[in-house]
């Protein structure tokens, strides 16, 4: 039955599996992934190490291929990487011989007035005004990662995928980067999927949290974060919600350990 006026999700994944071969044996990394992400949603993904969080992100980016099922972005099958998907790695991966502005422009020429305008906008957006001519070696870790984010946003992707981008930063810089990313999300409305090991980070950033179970990775819980922005980590509402997510996470761990003990 067709529902008149129904709005399709921006990202749609149906019955998607993924396996790898290790030591001559097939190991299933992801099983029966079902996921809808709406335009403008900020999804954070948490789960135990080895649950396939990064693998799922790389499949959405088109950097790896899923097995069976289907995966679509804006109604089109994802068959490989493209400018409609921005990807932020755990480390900045900047070109050391290029300045900040040239790293953001990448293979596009700053002599093009439209590219120049867009790069200038992004430098302002990621709070790097005054560092346009700086080289990567002159930047802090957080500043370098902001350059990566700006570069990924240059071509206005439909979705931005972030694989633990703040994991190597100190606590103060990490907190600042979370604020920067939320500012970008609010101002641009870019759909984001953010992988993290940090429950506080997942609650602070996400409008939706996905909790994955490992061996093989499955989405065991989808949690809507009904806390208003901006969020204060010291607030009672945040702490109550954090405990709720932590308990769900612990239940996934308990389930995993039980299955391992039973030889599943």
Structure description:
With 264 residues, the protein is an alpha/beta fold. The protein has 7 helices and 10 strands. β9 and β10 (218-224) form a beta hairpin. α6 crosses α7. The protein is globular.
Whole-number mean pLDDT: 90
Helix count, per DSSP? 7
Helix content: 25-40%
The rounded Rg comes to 19 Å
Distance between the termini: 39 Å
Q: How would you concisely characterize the structure shown here?
A:
By secondary structure, this protein is an alpha/beta fold.
Kindly list the characteristics that best describe this protein.
globular; 35% helix; disordered C terminus; 10 strands; 6-stranded mixed beta sheet; alpha/beta; 264 residues; 24% strand
Topology:
Blueprint: E1 11-22, E2 25-37, E3 42-46, H1 53-61, E4 70-73, E5 76-77, E6 85-88, H2 100-105, H3 113-125, H4 141-153, E7 159-163, H5 171-188, E8 191-195, H6 199-205, E9 208-213, E10 218-224, H7 236-261
Parallel strand pairs: 3-8, 3-9, 6-7, 7-8
Antiparallel strand pairs: 1-2, 1-4, 4-5, 9-10
Helix pairs in contact: 3-4, 6-7
